[in-house]
What we know:
Layout: H1 2-21, H2 28-59, E1 66-72, E2 75-89, E3 93-96, E4 102-107, E5 114-115, E6 120-124, H3 127-155, H4 161-186, E7 189-191, E8 196-201, E9 208-209, E10 216-219, E11 223-231, E12 243-248, E13 253-258, E14 261-262, E15 272-280, E16 291-307, E17 312-313, E18 319-327, E19 330-344, E20 347-352, E21 359-363, E22 374-377
Helix pairs in contact: 1-2, 3-4
Amino acid sequence: MRYTIVILTILITLFSCENQSRVPKSNLESLQADRLIIQNKVDSLNTQLKAIENAISKLDTVKKLQKVTVFSTKDTIFKHYISLQGMIASDKNAILRPEMGGTIQRILVKEGQRVSKGQTLVQLDASSFNDKLVELKTQLSLAKTTYERQERLWNQKIGSEMQYLNAKTQKEGLENSLNSLSTQIRKMKIRAPFSGIIDAIIPKVGELTSPQSSVIRLINLNKVYLEADVPETYLTSIKKGTPVLIDFISINKQVSAKIDEIGNYINPDNRSFRIKIQLSNKDHSIKPNLLADLKINDFSAKGVVLPSYLIQMNQKGEQYVYSIKKDSLKARVVKRILDLGKEYNNKVLITDGLKANESIVLEGGKFVKDGDEVEVTK
């Protein structure tokens, strides 16, 4: 290359000197004649220059080759993920309400307290029911005594059947009333339907409540589940047991899990189906309604995986990379046409065109062409 620059410099100098010695002509025919003379000289010099470059090429043993770096391909597991967002829910997250209306007499727990299933949490004022209960018990005691006497007399064929039946009916009616009143009294207590933690107590002692009034929020966070809506296009690629990576950004927690349930209903509003993932939550760090980022592994395969930035495209739309072929002491690049599979996170699965343990051009591939001799550097 340096010899070419020297020859061109001499040529320009000659033209410059000759032009300076000549007086510009204004005659067209003279100018055209001068141009033909100069053109012939240029052609002659180009022929000589080419001959000199060929001679230099044969004699110059030190060639300047394009430097490239390479890496060796290997079989690896390629994983493709679907990114979605889901929300935490819990089956044991309940708002407790009284079955009957009444005034709150006592609140027997505090917020944050752990309670057991069946434990009484709130007592409503049942004094009117208790007074009536005492009265009913007295009436029932008398009715039982009357019935027992009438029964003995009837068994001895003394008295009328009507008296016996009236006594029996009265006793049974009072027993039913007593049972009904006892049930009403039990409904004046709010009990824990499951073991958990008192998250919130809404009213205060002395306030009036009704079956529509929220009184206590009870939560058990030992087990929670995550729900997410998946586009229907993935219906065939997502199944029960499909691996999922879950990232709770708010609490800086990552969890690996599997899909436990897949919905059988396509929501017509967003063309999606619902999945559910059960999660263990012994430290109670995962809260209901917490948002989570999901990565569902919908595709996995073993094969050669390349960074997507290495893959080039020719005018025919073919995807290719350059590999290195060594013969004796020389290294040349070879164009390899590829068939591409799925792409994820800037990595592409190669389905055809490459095998494991091949040397692929990493850096410098943009500056070479098929068959070029190159210098491989580390």
